Every structure is written in C-alpha cells, then in structure tokens.
C-alpha cells in the first residue's frame, strides 16, 4: 500500500519550503523577464517612473514617452516606489517581484491554521502569483496586505491590521473594502482611529519630497483620472462582457452600486 505523501515527502509541509520554493521561482521568472528585455516588464517601468515623475513635479497621470500605459495609482504609491526605482533596473525589478511573491507567503503563514493547510493555500495561489510577477504587477502585494490584515485582526492586532489596509488603499483603492473586517472584531473605535491616522500620514508622505501645492495637484489629477478612466473598455471585466455580448452600455454606477450592496448583504445577518 502506497504511503501517504506526508510520509514520502514531509518537507513539502514544512514552514521553510514555501519560502525557498517561491523565492527560487521568483528569481528565475525575474531573470527570464530581464532576458526578454524592457518591454516584458512594462508595469514595473510605469511604477518606477512614477517616483521619478513625482520628484520632478511632472503630472503622474499624463501620458509619458517612458512607458506604454497610464499610471493609475496614488501619489503615495509613487513615493513608496523609491527603493525600487533608485536601484539599477535589474535589481529594482527583482526586489519588486520578491515583494509581490513573498508578502502573500508571510500573510498565509500568519493564519491560525496548521502548516499543512497553509502550504496548500500557497500552492493553490501559486500559478496566479507567478503570472502576476511575470507581468511585474502589484497583485501579490494586494493579496498579502488584505490577507495579512485579516490574520492580524484574528490575532487582535488591530493597529497594524489597519496599517496594512491603508497601505493597500494607496496602492489600489478597492483595498478599502477590507476595512469591513473591523466590524467583526472588538476595539472598533481604536481600529477606526488608527485607520484615520494612517490614511492622513500615508497620504502626506510625498510631502517629504514635494510641496503641499504640488501634492494637491497630483491628488486632483488622480481623482480626475479615476472619475474618467475608460480602461475597462480594453479588459475582461463584467462591464466589458456586457458591452461586447449584449451591447449594454450604461454608466459604471449601475454595476458598482449592486456590487456594493452584494458585498454588504451578509452584514444584515447581525445575529450571526
């Protein structure tokens, strides 16, 4: 009778194995992209140049000859890209991919489940993470921040949990929905206060390199882009699916409002 895999390969279920495996794959994938050349990691190019544009007082949200798409993240994210942008391009890309690959590993390991289940979760998400870093995207960071916030809430560490949510908000706004987690844990007022402080402090971080007036203009440009972004016309969102298949062209709010209501619907089950 064949022995169970836990006996044949016990190292698969150790805490260190995902760190070694994910790090090795990340290094190989990054090297592959560097060999393919500049055009193969355009997302990182956009992110890196956002820091350079920020300190040069260039509109972050205007088209640029430095890359092939618009920058759509916050001024704070542009500031936080500094450690990756000031490095030589190859090192910057490698460290950026490591951040996106390993933050989810850290977050999953913070969950209150046995190591075998943690490793199973990591291998389930592995292909998506690999695809993300092959395109130098920020999806790994978003996963790590939101899942890490949940794990910290579970361990009653509400202040660092709110820090992760606020960091996620300044990368991609939808991370703010993770703040709904605070409703399920004690010390709600402390969580809300911590979140308000982190939002202000993180939002003001670029003031270390630009003036208040310059930062105000960048935020105005960001909000203007978010309010007039036609990007979903070129992707595979539900909005685009409806436009292409049934010819339904309506405003984004007709999708967003039902989506928000569906998200909040479980909260009506207060007694649970």
Describe the model:
With 272 residues, the protein is mainly alpha-helical. The chain starts with a helix and ends in an 8-residue tail after the last helix. Helices cover 64% and strands 0% of the residues. It has 2 domains: 5-213, no CATH class; 230-272, no CATH class. α2 (16-36) runs antiparallel to α6 (89-109) and α6 (89-109) runs antiparallel to α7 (115-134).
Task: Describe what is shown at a glance.
The protein has helices at residues 5-8, 16-36, 42-55, 75-80, 82-85, 89-109, 115-134, 139-154, 158-171, 188-204, 212-227, 238-246, 253-264. It is mainly α and 272 residues long. It has two domains: 5-213, no CATH class; 230-272, no CATH class.
Any key phrases for this structure?
single chain; 272 residues; mainly alpha; 2 domains; globular
Counted by DSSP, the helix tally is 13
Q: What order do the helices and strands follow?
A: HHHHHHHHHHHHH
* Helix-and-strand structural type: mainly alpha
Overall number of strands: 0
User: What's the shape?
Assistant: globular
Count of spatially separate domains: 2
Helical content, roughly? Answer: 55-70%
Major sheet size, sense and barrel closure: none
Arithmetic mean of pLDDT: 88
Low-confidence stretches: none
Roughly what fraction of the amino acids lie in strands? Answer: under 5%
């Amino acid at each position: 009778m064949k022995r169970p895999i836990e006996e044949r390969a016990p190292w698969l279920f150790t805490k260190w194995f995902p760190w070694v495996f994910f790090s090795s794959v990340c290094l190989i994938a990054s090297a592959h992209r560097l060999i393919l050349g500049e055009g193969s990691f355009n997302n990182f190019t956009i992110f890196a140049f956002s820091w350079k544009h920020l300190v040069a007082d260039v509109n972050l949200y205007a088209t640029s000859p430095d890359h092939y798409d618009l920058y759509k993240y916050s001024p704070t994210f542009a500031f936080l890209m500094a450690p990756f942008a000031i490095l030589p391009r190859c090192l910057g890309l490698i460290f950026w991919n490591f951040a996106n690959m390993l933050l989810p590993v850290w977050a999953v390991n913070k969950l209150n489940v046995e190591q075998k289940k943690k490793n199973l979760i990591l291998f389930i998400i592995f292909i998506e993470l690999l695809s993300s870093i092959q395109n130098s995207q920020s999806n790994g960071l978003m996963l790590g921040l939101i899942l890490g916030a949940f794990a910290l809430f579970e361990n009653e560490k509400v202040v660092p949990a709110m820090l992760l949510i606020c960091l996620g908000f300044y990368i991609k706004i939808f991370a703010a929905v993770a703040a709904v987690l605070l409703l399920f844990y004690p010390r709600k007022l402390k969580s809300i206060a911590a979140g308000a402080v982190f939002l202000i402090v993180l939002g003001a971080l670029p003031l270390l390199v630009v003036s208040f007036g310059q930062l105000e203009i960048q935020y105005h440009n960001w909000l203007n882009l978010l309010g007039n972004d036609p990007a979903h016309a070129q992707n595979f969102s539900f909005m685009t699916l409806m436009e292409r298949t049934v010819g339904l062209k309506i405003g984004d709010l007709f999708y967003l409002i039902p989506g928000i209501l569906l998200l909040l619907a479980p909260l009506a089950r207060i007694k649970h």
